[in-house]
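Deliverable D4.2, example record:
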Amino acid sequence: MVATLTLRGVASASGSLRNVVARSTTVTTRSVSRSISSMAIRTAQPLSRVSYSVSRTLSVNCSGRSRSFSSSVTLTNASGRTTVKDPEPQTGLYYHPTQISISRGPDQPSNTVDGWAISFLAQPSDSEDAVIAYVLPTNTSSSQDSEPADFIRANPDRIRINPAGWKIMHDVLKHEVVPNDDLLKFEASTRESGWAHLTDLRHPLMPGRIATPENIIASVAFTEGELNVESYEENKSYRLVTGYEGPIQMSDSWIGKLRKRFESL
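Output generated by the structure prediction step:
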């Protein structure tokens, strides 16, 4: 089963956040030392926000790049590429080789190139819904020119979210992480009411500080020390990968819950 994703356009990456987050924040770019080969620390690059129309098909190839694409995920392909694990364990990510057919429009000829599908699973799933994002080539080179972990850090704007996988990720965070996370419950217990934020660990915070919008995955309201799961709100400004802090990082317990759900697809 393959999903065909059609890019309708580029919208602002400055999505809305509730007032509790929309305070002026000064971000000091930190020097980050990572054990990743050939990686240079870069300033943040804007990640294009896109909307997709999704249709499933039984064919193996797909269409896409900055127009449209679809993908079939395999453990290895004719070029000898294999699944790659991200070198930073707290990302929990794996990059699966995939064929991406790129075209400039529905009536334009397409070219098939090697790309990557991003998931939390060590083995490619039979379900396209287990993919949370795809790595698209740049205008001058294809994404297989370097290791995928290096490539996405150097080219965060080449990430395209898979809406189906992204929705499942947030469903797990809402229904399985929020009710059981000790830090969220502790934050709710220390104040009468407000919002607790599910924060990406790639940007460590000082006590009492609120993360920048691109590092807040979602938020949940609490009243009288109790979390209201149904108030869970995805942050549209969140970025799966940033140019200066890399891809998503979460606790082992969060990754474990996500992996369990995606394995069940």
